[in-house]
């Protein structure tokens, strides 16, 4: 895909059914293997359901940002969540998904830059995220974009995984998150 500028808008609850398959395809199942962000060798099952996306959209200080490609007929090609923590002046970057057939073409960089700008414009002076510690290539991608890997470790939400549906499970033991942060 060319480096054409994406267009962005905030998601509404009505967008959740459109967003869920995009997020799922970027991380789980065989389709995710077409990209480089797959978690298919680590986890199986549903990454997030429609109700979970609606919850993110409706959470105070949270925005789910949708990215569309004008060169692809304004198709939805990526999304992310920015959860603002106003008292700490921090934005949390999550639920980042790019269509796996379009990864490695510059879409992710544009979405990340847009999310950082959104956080800045809403008072954040830092952006934080968590990445599964085994995802070294992904962590290196964020480091190249100015993020620093901290010494902080956060536990993987195995309980939440089990609540999603009966098919969800980890395929490997010892899953936990590294915390990355960037000054905005």
From TrEMBL:
<dbReference type="GO" id="GO:0016747">
    <property type="term" value="F:acyltransferase activity, transferring groups other than amino-acyl groups"/>
</dbReference>
<feature type="domain" description="N-acetyltransferase">
    <location>
        <begin position="6"/>
        <end position="166"/>
    </location>
</feature>
<dbReference type="InterPro" id="IPR000182">
    <property type="entry name" value="GNAT_dom"/>
</dbReference>
<dbReference type="Pfam" id="PF00583">
    <property type="entry name" value="Acetyltransf_1"/>
</dbReference>
<dbReference type="InterPro" id="IPR016181">
    <property type="entry name" value="Acyl_CoA_acyltransferase"/>
</dbReference>
<protein>
    <submittedName>
        <fullName>Acyl-CoA N-acyltransferase</fullName>
    </submittedName>
</protein>
